[in-house]
Design brief:
Length: about 120
């Protein structure tokens, strides 16, 4: 299990490293055949449902021209967690958009980002 065969997923992101563990999940972007295309987002893990699903919350700012200010908004995204990535609540994660994996899941966790990525 020490040999890690990760696919080049074509994504370079500061603080992102390929998982040190290996898995044989087909729906893993690193070891399976899951393609990541579309968006990339950074968010915080706020819920873990089972082993395969994380709820990621994202804070973002929207400019409101009427008040010339930014409004703070939040969104929650369901993302699949490949078996080779272990998550804890509060982790900052990079998620990538992929094909729909379940009714409400079309994102996958690519990895945990190191501290300081706020
Ligand atoms: Zn994997």
């Amino acid at each position: 299990m020490s040999e890690s065969k990760v696919r080049d997923i074509g994504i370079k992101f500061e603080g992102l490293e390929p998982p040190s563990k290996t898995c044989d999940d087909d729906e893993c972007p690193w070891h399976g055949h899951l393609k990541v295309r579309g968006g990339l987002l950074v968010g915080r893990v706020i819920k873990l449902r089972g082993r395969k699903l994380a709820v990621v919350e994202r804070d973002y700012l929207v400019y409101v021209s009427k008040f010339k200010r930014y409004e703070r908004r939040r969104s929650r995204i369901h993302a699949r967690v490949p078996p080779c990535i272990s998550l804890n609540l509060g982790d900052n994660v990079l998620i990538g958009e992929t094909r729909p994996l379940a009714k409400s899941v079309s994102w996958v966790v690519l990895g945990v980002l190191k501290e300081g990525g706020h």
